[in-house]
């Protein structure tokens, strides 16, 4: 269109005509008033010329200076031709509109002439003109793709998913598309307008396992046909083949089982771990019901004591059957030996010999197994069972004692409502298998999985291919020490078998990852956490401390506040912002220590938080930071109707930069909100959100106004908050020092070398540029000063290049005094150039009994002026003078 416009503006009418003719042979009239203006300009200067345009809805446009022209239209295909006259439906200046027959798309070409003088107007290649482009692909949860009509990118393309299954009762289903604006960013950048679509696989399941995606005209999209489940048929063939190759044989029995019961055989392969095995067997015998028996498989254990132990159980208990292998064949072979010793009607529980079962575990697992006909396996919660782990979902929880197992199993039974959440695989540490599922699927693949790991996952995927489901039972908890048999080679074996598993079941890792991303077991882990908490603190009163997920002094203060509440029998919790594995924003409520109840995770919703706080009997909120939560979410907490206090740790309440500094780290001087907004747009935000400064201040003022109390740790902070937000916080220092003799600068005789300490993580606002300038000046003058940075900086390399700076790297608090002694530090320099609100770094320096030199700004200067322990210097003191002060502090005694 731009090329046509340029030719018309330059009066290159011949070239303009060529381009317009070429345009209409490929495209519909451009849907913008400028296009009509360009054609009008051309026709005004070329009154004998006419053009025809065709839209994809069958509308014809004749652009001509002549009015009320009838058209003779001819639709042709290889085996037919039809001609008819068209009269204009609507006439506008230089443009007449016509409508052609509805079936025009079924023909090959359209020709247009003037019936009065046989003037030829135009011809259209219909298949080329109406072609659609598009692509479709399947993800783990959706089918998605795009489509468009090159002739008219704005024309809505109708898409359909057509079943390829001849017996499908639902042969077709429409797919909604998103139609973008013609001038959106994607079009301007790529020149393409793509109509995108995405639909959940679950909504297409009624079409069967395969379907094609095509337009209403029958154009198939690239990537079509689509298989709902990758290689479904191959997976089923593989599963059937293995079930025939390794059939799950069983023993005949003359006993008639009660039809109202489901007998169970607990198969326990045994190799090593004498004491763990003894405890396991004792607990299984203690907690089994009358319809449960044990099949012990001695997998060629080299331990005589173990062999003696299992023989004792075999001889002592009629419900125990012992099978012995002459060699150590590995877990899969031992398990298969036990599985083939079951009776025909018996369900099986495959159980590791290092597990700790508890009361009614069999009954609850069985209840879950028979909750639906297609459930094939059930796996309980455990401390160490990959996706079934609790309380830590990564399986890092320690092995529980027998008492803790009993306790957790009891609580799990109390919170369980009979739900059986689907899982992608069972876990062989404790795996309830229905008899019918085992018979259908066959045995574990001992031929390729060697000593074990992954064999139950392969088995589970085979069962899934045959239509069986795997579920978790949140109502049972079984302790697990894990890997008694091959712990020394576990890592290598796992790596080898995982490769094998993914080779056999392509995409297995992705399947597990996608399931973990959704974390369907979180609600059950959370419920169990709350049940444990109710048991641990039956008369619970709690306080919620809203904090961020970053490092810094705030974390220390929150810890001190937690100690305050614990001393008053109030349980403190932290509210922290986190994100799920897929990036979904969440809230986590953490106890002290944080790992006590790790599953108190909820959506960032005031209603979800209100329900959880009701369970925690929360009576007070402390808001320490909104960073990471978004300020509007924190402001919404007012609606909880719980009294709250606000603690000021920084200036994020009115400064998106947090520290009242610009990009260079220098103090900004606190300009008006308009200049602050310019700073935000120029320098960016350090809070993680870009709320306009005016809105930020309004939200903060509202939050502060409705707070019970707003606390600030220094008079300097009080003044700044009052000046900027009109709220006067209560002055409350974060720490109190009693009977303290504040350090003073010592007298150093002669031209001795000074060792100046710097403590912390030194970024720009913490004075990095100042430290670097001082170090370079020191090196240039060959001054007798050495700097020791206990910590690190934003650019250690540049500091080290000066040759006068030593850097320790990350440190623990208890290491500070050791570094002071090791490097014989004389005193400290605190280079921070932003008005700190308190500064725990200053406290840590004083605890080394060394004085400090700091800039005259913020709480750091206020505290030094209040009690001594150092001196302050002007913020913009020239570096040569500052270097002189660092060498000989002016208040050192004569």
TrEMBL record:
This is Glycosyl transferase family 1 domain-containing protein. One of its GO terms (molecular function) is glycosyltransferase activity. Pfam families: Glyco_tranf_2_3, Glycos_transf_1. Signal peptide: none annotated. Belongs to the glycosyltransferase 2 family. Residues 751-873 form the Glycosyl transferase family domain. Keywords: Glycosyltransferase, Transferase.
């Amino acid at each position: 269109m731009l090329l046509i416009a340029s030719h018309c503006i330059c009066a290159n009418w011949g070239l303009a005509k060529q381009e317009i003719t070429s345009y209409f042979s490929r495209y519909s009239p451009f849907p913008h008033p400028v296009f009509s203006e360009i054609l009008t300009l051309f026709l005004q200067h070329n009154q004998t010329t006419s053009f025809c345009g065709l839209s994809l809805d069958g509308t014809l446009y004749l652009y001509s200076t002549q009015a009320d022209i009838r058209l003779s239209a001819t639709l042709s295909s290889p085996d037919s031709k039809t001609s008819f006259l068209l009269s204009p439906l609507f006439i506008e200046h230089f443009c007449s509109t016509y409508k052609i027959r509805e079936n025009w798309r079924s023909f090959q070409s359209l020709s247009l002439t003037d019936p009065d003088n046989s003037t030829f107007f135009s011809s259209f290649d219909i298949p080329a003109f109406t072609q659609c482009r598009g692509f479709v692909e399947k993800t783990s949860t959706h089918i998605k793709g795009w489509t468009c009509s090159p002739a008219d990118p704005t024309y809505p393309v109708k898409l359909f998913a057509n079943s390829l299954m001849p017996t499908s009762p639902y042969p077709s289903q429409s797919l909604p598309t998103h139609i973008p604006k013609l001038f959106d960013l994607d079009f301007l950048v790529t020149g393409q307008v793509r109509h995108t679509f995405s639909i959940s696989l679950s909504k297409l399941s009624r079409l069967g396992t395969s379907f094609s995606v095509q337009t209403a005209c029958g154009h198939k999209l690239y990537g079509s046909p689509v298989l709902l489940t990758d290689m479904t048929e191959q997976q089923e063939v593989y599963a059937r083949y293995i079930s025939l190759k390794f059939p799950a044989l069983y023993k005949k029995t003359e006993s008639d089982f009660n039809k109202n019961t489901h007998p169970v055989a607990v198969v326990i392969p045994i190799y090593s771990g004498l004491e763990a095995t003894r405890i396991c067997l004792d607990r299984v015998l203690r907690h089994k019901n009358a319809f449960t028996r044990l099949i012990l498989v001695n997998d060629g254990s080299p331990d005589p004591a173990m062999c003696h132990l299992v023989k004792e159980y075999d001889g002592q208990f009629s419900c125990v059957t012992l099978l012995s292998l002459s060699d150590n064949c590995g877990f899969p072979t031992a398990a298969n030996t036990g599985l083939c010793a079951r009776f025909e009607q018996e369900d099986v529980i495959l159980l590791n010999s290092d597990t700790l079962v508890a009361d009614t575990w069999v009954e609850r697992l069985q209840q879950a197994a028979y909750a639906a006909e297609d459930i094939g396996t059930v796996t309980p919660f455990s401390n160490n069972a990959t996706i079934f782990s609790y309380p830590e979902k990564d399986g890092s929880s320690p092995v529980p004692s027998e008492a803790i197992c009993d306790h957790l199993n009891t609580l799990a039974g109390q919170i369980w409502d009979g739900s059986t959440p689907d899982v992608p695989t069972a876990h062989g540490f404790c795996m309830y298998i229905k008899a019918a599922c085992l018979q259908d699927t066959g045995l574990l693949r001992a031929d390729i999985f060697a000593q074990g790991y992954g064999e139950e996952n392969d088995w589970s995927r085979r069962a899934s291919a045959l239509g069986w489901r795997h579920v978790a039972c949140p109502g049972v908890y079984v302790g697990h020490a894990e890997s008694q048999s091959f712990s020394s080679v576990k890592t290598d074996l796992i790596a080898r078998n995982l490769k094998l598993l993914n080779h056999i079941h392509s995409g297995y890792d992705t399947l597990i990852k996608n399931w973990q991303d959704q974390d369907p077991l979180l609600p059950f882990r959370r419920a169990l956490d709350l049940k444990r908490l109710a048991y641990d603190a039956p008369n619970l009163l709690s306080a919620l401390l809203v904090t961020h997920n970053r490092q810094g002094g705030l974390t220390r203060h929150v810890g001190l506040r937690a100690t305050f509440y614990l001393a008053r029998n109030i349980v403190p919790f932290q509210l922290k912002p986190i994100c799920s594995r897929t990036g979904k924003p969440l809230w986590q409520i953490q106890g002290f220590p944080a790992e006590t109840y790790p599953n108190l995770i909820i959506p960032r919703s005031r209603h979800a938080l209100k329900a959880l706080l009701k369970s925690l009997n929360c009576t007070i909120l402390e808001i320490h930071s909104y960073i990471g939560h978004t300020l509007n979410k924190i402001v919404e907490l007012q609606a909880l109707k719980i009294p709250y206090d606000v603690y000021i740790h920084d200036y994020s309440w009115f400064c998106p930069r947090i520290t009242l500094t610009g990009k260079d780290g220098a103090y900004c001087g606190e300009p008006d909100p308009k200049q602050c907004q310019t700073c935000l747009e120029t320098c960016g935000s350090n809070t993680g959100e870009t709320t306009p400064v005016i809105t930020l201040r309004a939200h903060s003022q509202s939050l502060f106004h409705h707070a019970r109390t707003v606390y600030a740790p220094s008079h300097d902070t009080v003044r700044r908050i009052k000046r900027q937000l009109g709220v006067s916080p209560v002055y409350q220092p974060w720490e109190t020092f009693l009977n303290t003799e504040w350090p003073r600068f010592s007298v150093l005789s002669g031209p001795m070398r000074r060792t100046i300490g710097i403590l912390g993580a030194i970024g720009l606002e913490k004075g990095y540029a100042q430290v670097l300038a001082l170090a370079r000046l020191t090196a240039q003058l060959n001054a007798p000063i050495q700097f020791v940075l206990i910590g690190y900086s934003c650019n250690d390399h540049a500091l080290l290049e000066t040759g006068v700076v030593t850097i320790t790297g990350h440190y623990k608090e208890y290491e500070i005094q050791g570094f002071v002694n090791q490097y014989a530090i004389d005193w400290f320099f605190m280079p921070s150039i932003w008005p700190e609100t308190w500064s725990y770094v200053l406290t840590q320096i004083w605890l080394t009994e060394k004085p400090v030199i700091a800039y005259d700004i913020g709480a750091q200067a206020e505290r030094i002026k209040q009690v001594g322990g150092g001196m302050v210097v002007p913020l913009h003191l020239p570096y040569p003078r500052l270097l002189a002060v660092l060498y000989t502090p002016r208040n050192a005694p004569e």
